[in-house]
Request: fold
Amino acid sequence: MDAKKTAFLGLGVMGFPMAGHLARAGHAVTVYNRTASKVGQWAEKFGAGHGGSTALTPAAAAEGKDLVMVCVGNDDDVRAVTLGPDGALAAMRPGAVLVDHTTASATLARELYADAKARGVRFLDAPVSGGQAGAENGKLTIMVGGDADAFALAEPVLGCYARAVTLMGGPGSGQLTKMVNQICIAGLLQGLSEGINFGMRAGLDIERVLDVIGKGAAQSWQMDNRGKTMAADKFDFGFAVDWMRKDLGICMAQSRVDGTALPVTALIDQLYARVQARGGGRWDTSSLIRLLRDK
Reply:
């Protein structure tokens, strides 16, 4: 793969390793992060050995780059690093590709697509699934919305930290697909919580139960990777409840636009609010079982 001049904006638990994979693959990477200490940590790990560099503003990071990746917290954070005089779009050259990995709204994706197009820049909304472990291991799943020509340019580069990169449709399609992903996960985790709690209260060897039913129709990634830690009451890792509530809020806002019913999702969002009230905002999303166990 030809080396590309890239920028990565946002060095959180996902962005930090994702930008690192780009550097290890031989791409020239310039990073920006709102918290300067993260920039220093990334530069120490990837700067000297892999040619990574840092910038003080998103615009400075994006100037002259072939691709600019964004992975921040929410819609407002995306706007902060892409728009305005210090935003990435102000400095990107015509023909370059802006890729937003943030889980954000489809409305924002369409707005940025139009803004970028007016400047001669290509835009892809490209939220990811796979969590921190997927980012660190380069095994993310990326669902992409945008134009086929932009996707063709970006796909080989995104493959540096993904096992699957799929174009789902036009602008906003990546974000809508991620919403489906989160809706399915939320419902599955509540079912898994109820099942494990039921089995434990019934006196079953729950690890044995999970081993058996995990070979049948009940099998899922969540069961394989979270079932036994749920039974062991361990939640100090993984995808945080705070992040899931943000994502479910996006899902429910979109459902109001589309007139779609999400009764179970709305219920689980309120259950997560109860987890937050217990101080579990940074616990893994599998902590739903705490509400059943601690009644």
User: Anything to note?
Assistant: Strands lie at 5-9, 28-32, 53-54, 67-70, 97-100, 122-125, 128-129, 140-145, 162-169. Residues 173-201 form the longest helix (29 residues). The domain at 177-293 is CATH 1.10.1040.10 (N-(1-d-carboxylethyl)-l-norvaline Dehydrogenase; domain 2).
